[in-house]
Amino acid sequence: MGPSLRVHNLTCNDPIVLVHARALLTSSVEGSTSYVDADVRNPETILAAARETLDFDRPVALLLLAIGHFLDDEHDPYGVVGTLVEALPSGSYLVMSHLTAEFQPEETAKTEAMYRAQGMVLRPRSRDEIAQFFDGLELVEPGVVLTQRWRPDANDRISSEEPGERAPVYGGVARKP
Asked: Which of 65, 89, 160, 171: disulfide with 147, CB 3.0–4.6 Å?
């Protein structure tokens, strides 16, 4: 039997995604798959469910992709991420991407207004604010950069004149010491 593979989807507020996830989930001898229907603002609930599937004695990858910008300041986003990261064993990784308004302020403001009109939050953050999510962790090079610049393919043509044009999203990967 090979090494165990454990995959965990941490959060989703879309009931359609939940239905699809339950339909697609399968486990095997090689590992198990689980889906947690929880709100990221309740990290303790997520961690309790994750511990049923994941081995927290071994490094874990925590992927928070395009989720941080749905946490307003009143939701304590740094506390939420900090609680999740604190529970991870040494050698684990945090992978995070987050919307910024630094490159397309007018378009982002329109998008924020659209979300607010639907009763939802959208809170873009600056590069420095996003980098704070990685405090206490060892950033992997190139650090917190626009996602299309993180490790672009050699064939990727990235315009230096228009940073953030393709995707005004910062991303980073960091290891927990």
From this structure: 171
